[in-house]
């Protein structure tokens, strides 16, 4: 059965930005050494995951089975940095919530809570402590790993945790679709939107962003925009965090801002 990075790709989950696994190899997973899979002519790296005995594989097609996403996340814990483990957890919660058969009727918040319970209930393994700690930061409603990294960068500067994927009450586009914000502090009417390259190159996306932001600014919101440059290095992240902190404090939020990033753990 395919495992780890291959399972993520097969199930449309973004790969971690940093991972020490050799992605030129096909990684497979089995519950015991006896059941390890090897194929002649195909460079493979077999892994043993004893917890696999308690789960059902995900059927991709009649010939291909993959490790389910929660087990994939836990198996990757020793191979990715802590913040990437959180970003991957966010992405997996979103991916499961958007797949009707996989969600089993659960909301994204219930799936996130289920991931935390899953991590706590696993037998001891290298990376379990990181998984349990990461669950304290994983959130529902996150659309991209860059949004996760942006949120975590702000938290590391002491900024209170925002609400991801916030739907603004009573605000809709001309089409009638609800307006959502990448992350928001609703009490202070402050939000951060992450603009990737598609926000600049896709004319329809640009118009949609402009319509939303103009409407919200007219209703008292402060919208701060983050980009790849915002996240490029510690100085850029600190400058962005200071701007967000200032907006929040001007609206009455009270917290201690840290000019230098602090570790999440």
Automatic annotation (TrEMBL):
InterPro entries: Restrct_endonuc-II-like. SUPFAM superfamilies: Restriction endonuclease-like. Gene3D superfamilies: VSR Endonuclease (3.40.960.10). This is DUF559 domain-containing protein. It comes from Bifidobacterium parmae.
């Amino acid at each position: 059965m395919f495992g780890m990075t291959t399972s993520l790709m097969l199930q449309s989950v973004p790969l971690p930005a940093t991972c020490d696994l050799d992605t030129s190899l096909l990684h497979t997973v089995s519950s015991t050494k006896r059941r390890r899979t090897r194929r002649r002519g195909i460079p493979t790296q077999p892994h043993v995951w004893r917890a696999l005995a308690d789960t059902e594989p995900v059927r991709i097609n009649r010939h291909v089975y993959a490790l389910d996403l929660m087990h994939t996340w836990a198996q990757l814990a020793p191979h990715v940095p802590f913040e990437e483990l959180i970003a991957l957890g966010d992405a997996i919660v979103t991916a499961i919530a958007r797949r009707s058969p996989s969600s089993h009727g659960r909301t994204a918040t219930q799936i996130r809570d289920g991931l935390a319970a899953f991590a706590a209930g696993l037998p001891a393994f290298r990376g379990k402590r990181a998984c349990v700690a990461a669950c304290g930061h994983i959130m529902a409603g996150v659309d991209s790993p860059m949004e996760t990294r942006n949120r975590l960068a702000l938290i590391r500067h002491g900024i209170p945790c925002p609400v991801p994927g916030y739907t603004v009450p009573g605000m809709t586009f001309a089409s009638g679709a609800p307006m959502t914000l990448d992350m928001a502090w609703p009490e202070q009417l402050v939000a951060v939107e992450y603009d990737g390259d598609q926000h600049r190159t896709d004319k329809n996306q640009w118009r949609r962003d402009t319509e939303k932001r103009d409407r919200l600014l007219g209703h008292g919101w402060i919208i701060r925009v983050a980009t790849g440059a915002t996240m490029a290095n510690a100085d850029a992240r600190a400058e962005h965090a200071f701007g967000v902190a200032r907006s929040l404090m001007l609206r009455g939020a009270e917290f201690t801002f840290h000019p230098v990033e602090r570790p999440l753990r």
